[in-house]
Write a sequence for this structure.
């Protein structure tokens, strides 16, 4: 009589589930908790206004048009700075990745200027471009340019040499090679750069608006703090969080459209 | 079109700066409409030789010449790669059209030519798929269609079926032979598989291990079209035995070298 040993499933501990219910409840629970803490007077509204008050204040600001002005101003700055920075970064990254001469010129320059915290350049940019929109757009542009250039460069350099050889074997010239092989090869890295850049852009937007602006979400937050209007301040923060979530979602959609082969 | 390889040598410089001889004074000629197999143990430089013929690697000495005029609009050579080398961001159709784009064909002409080669290689119904959605056998059909679409005078194939499983490989070999019967391209076919070389080729050029030299050129006395039944023919066994006796010691030496 031989003993029978059941074979255990050793992968049980590795199993990962979706937990759809927890996902739905988690955010709502935070809101309810927040409402409770403020409603009971545990935390004074000057420090933390209740979410319903923040919502009401937001609606009021929407009605008066104040909100729209701030949001539109901020959006214009970030879209312009982000767009130009990304365009410039991808172009420079492709050039530096492909032409050895451009690499020899560009790499030391990028290595030397990349570590500068870009917000430190704002005073200089204001000096050069004035206190208006240009200096704010420029600081965002710089913040987005570096991750984009570096990621595009890395994407180009790590392109599969076999595909490059295949393209060349079919007579592809330089421009063909860049457009049809290197650029698509770099797209995943480019999108990683866009996500990094979006975070940097939001950070620089708020910082620049806090330092030198009358309107925009950053200015709204700072002014509200000066006037002890914590509710308005919270409206600004919720807006920024929404802006972050939206840009992330938009980039994810764009990535699926641009990289359908993955 | 004839391919003449004239006293080609290739020396690489490795990471330590030492010269490594990959090919040593290789001369051979491939006749028009000939199916020539280049066979040798791993690391004998046979792929290097093919790359030199394709213009993807420069020889250190000697030269490669293509003889016989080339009709306008035809490519001299086109390559089929061992690892397929399909563009993952292009559909089957767009992959097949790649060489035609570079040749400057208009969209309508490209589509027509691609359709023709989709039919020829048995890819009908897969035109809109991306490479990652296809099996290995289907991917290499795309690789073959992409190369044939530019109507090359010489088709270069670098171990095209070695990444496939044995059953798929056998079927693809027969399909390639059927395509060859119809198109009569000059083919240079690199392989390390003796059975494959004997089954497919008119002549088998056997290379020595590194540095690659021509050990012998074996004509294959099997009729055309080749059929599976010929795998048991005495002429098949005789050629395969002769080649194996030539490269057995070479392969053993290469194996020992790999262990050292």
């Amino acid at each position: 009589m031989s003993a029978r040993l059941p074979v255990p499933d050793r992968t049980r501990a590795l199993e990962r589930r979706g937990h759809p219910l927890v996902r739905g409840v988690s955010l709502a629970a935070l809101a309810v908790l927040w409402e409770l803490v403020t409603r009971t007077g545990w935390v004074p509204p000057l420090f933390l206004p209740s979410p319903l008050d923040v919502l009401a204040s937001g609606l009021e600001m929407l009605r008066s048009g104040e909100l729209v002005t701030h949001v539109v101003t901020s959006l214009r700055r970030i879209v312009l700075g982000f767009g130009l920075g990304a365009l410039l970064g991808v172009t420079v990254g492709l050039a530096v990745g492909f032409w050895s001469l451009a690499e020899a010129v560009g790499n030391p320059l990028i290595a030397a200027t990349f570590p500068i915290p870009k917000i430190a350049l704002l005073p200089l940019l204001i000096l050069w471009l004035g206190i208006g929109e240009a200096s704010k757009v420029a600081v965002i542009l710089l913040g987005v340019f570096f991750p984009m250039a570096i990621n595009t460069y890395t994407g180009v350099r790590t392109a599969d040499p076999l595909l490059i050889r295949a393209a060349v074997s079919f007579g592809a010239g330089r421009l063909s090679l860049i457009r049809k092989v290197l650029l698509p090869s770099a797209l995943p890295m480019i999108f990683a750069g866009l996500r990094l850049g979006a975070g940097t852009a939001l950070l620089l937007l708020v910082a620049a608006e806090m330092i030198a602006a009358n309107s925009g979400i950053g200015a709204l937050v700072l002014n509200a703090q000066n006037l002890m209007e914590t509710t308005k301040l919270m409206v600004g923060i919720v807006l920024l969080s929404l802006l972050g979530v939206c840009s992330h979602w938009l980039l994810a959609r764009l990535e699926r459209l641009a990289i359908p082969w993955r | 079109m004839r391919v003449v390889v004239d006293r080609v040598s290739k020396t690489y410089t490795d990471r330590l700066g030492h010269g490594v001889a990959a090919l040593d004074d290789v001369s051979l000629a491939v006749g028009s409409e000939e199916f020539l197999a280049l066979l040798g143990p791993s690391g004998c430089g046979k792929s290097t030789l093919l790359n030199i013929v394709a213009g993807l690697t420069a020889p250190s000495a000697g030269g490669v010449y293509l003889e016989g005029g080339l009709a306008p609009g035809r490519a001299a050579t086109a390559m089929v790669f061992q690892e397929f080398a399909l563009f993952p961001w292009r559909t089957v159709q767009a992959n097949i059209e790649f060489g035609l784009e570079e040749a400057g064909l208009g969209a309508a002409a490209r589509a027509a030519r691609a359709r023709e080669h989709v039919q020829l290689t048995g890819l009908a119904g897969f035109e809109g798929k991306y490479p990652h959605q296809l099996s290995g056998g289907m991917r290499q059909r795309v690789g073959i269609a992409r190369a044939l679409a530019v109507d090359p005078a010489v088709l270069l194939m670098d171990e095209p079926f070695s990444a496939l499983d044995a059953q798929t490989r056998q079927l693809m070999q027969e399909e390639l032979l059927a395509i060859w019967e119809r198109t009569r391209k000059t083919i240079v076919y690199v392989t390390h598989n003796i059975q494959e070389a004997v089954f497919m080729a008119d002549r088998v050029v056997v290379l020595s291990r590194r540095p690659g030299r021509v050990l012998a050129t074996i004509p294959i006395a099997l009729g055309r079209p080749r059929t599976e039944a010929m795998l048991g023919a005495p002429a098949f066994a005789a050629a395969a035995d002769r080649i194996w006796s030539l490269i057995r010691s070479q392969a053993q030496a290469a194996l020992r070298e790999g262990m050292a």
Observations:
- Residues 86-152 of chain B form one domain.
- Chain B has two domains: 2-70+154-259, 86-152.
- The first helix of chain B runs from residue 46 to 54.
